[in-house]
Design goal:
The protein is of the alpha/beta class and 121 residues long. The chain has 3 helices and 8 strands; from the N terminus they run E-E-E-E-E-H-E-H-E-H-E.
């Protein structure tokens, strides 16, 4: 799905998402991704677990993690939510489309947000 273009100099913006992956600030990523304000990386261990999301904690400066779970929503496991909260990061799980749109809105407001996104299969 094509998203409305938001011009955000120096920030990563999610431009498109689909079953095969994402286009973020002009770069195409196949499969899951982690989108930070300053960079986007392939998410090779795409699982909502403490180990798989350690890179978000290590990045620093993130206050909110949007977890895009494909076409479905699922609750965040309490141990994962607690581990992220201990690092000062709130987490919100939603479908991938909603996570992409929410990320773009929050990054336009200069919020310290990241998105861990699974393609909507």
């Amino acid at each position: 799905m094509e998203l409305t273009q938001i011009v955000q100099t120096g920030r990563q913006v999610i431009e498109r998402y689909g079953a095969s992956g994402f286009r973020v600030s002009g770069a195409v990523f196949r499969g899951p991704v982690l989108v930070f304000p300053d960079r986007t990386i392939a998410w090779s261990d795409a699982a909502p677990s403490r180990e798989a999301l350690a890179v978000v904690v290590d990045h620093g400066g993130i206050e909110l993690l949007l977890l895009g779970l494909g076409r479905r929503m699922a609750p965040v496991a309490p141990p994962l939510r607690a581990a992220l909260r201990a690092a000062g990061i709130a987490v919100e799980a939603m479908d991938t489309g909603a996570a992409c749109r929410t990320y773009n809105l929050l990054i336009a407001e200069d919020r310290r947000v990241a998105a861990a996104l699974l393609p909507p299969l």
